[in-house]
Design a protein that fits this description.
The protein has 1 helix and 2 strands. The protein has about 70 residues and is α+β, with helices and mostly antiparallel strands. The chain is elongated. The structure holds zinc ion.
């Protein structure tokens, strides 16, 4: 009989033990990602948004109507 404790589950991204909390990616699986990797992914998203100028915000519009017979 072994005195070893079962190994802590590992992060699916960095494979470090999940000792400081994690997020489960899908409810039906046990795929977990640690908070450090979640923070890194969030920072990558912010950089990507900053590089592309971010989402375009529509502040107004002018309707255009097509007319087939103006005569
Ligand atoms: Zn991780």
């Amino acid at each position: 009989m072994s005195d070893l404790l079962p190994a802590a589950p590992a992060c699916a991204c960095c494979e470090e033990p999940l000792t400081r909390g994690s997020v489960r990616l899908w409810p039906d699986t046990d795929v977990r990602v640690c908070y450090d990797c979640i923070d890194w992914m969030t920072s990558q998203r912010d950089l990507q948004i900053a590089r592309t100028g971010g989402p375009v915000r529509v502040v107004g519009h002018e309707p255009i109507f097509r007319v087939d017979d103006v005569a």
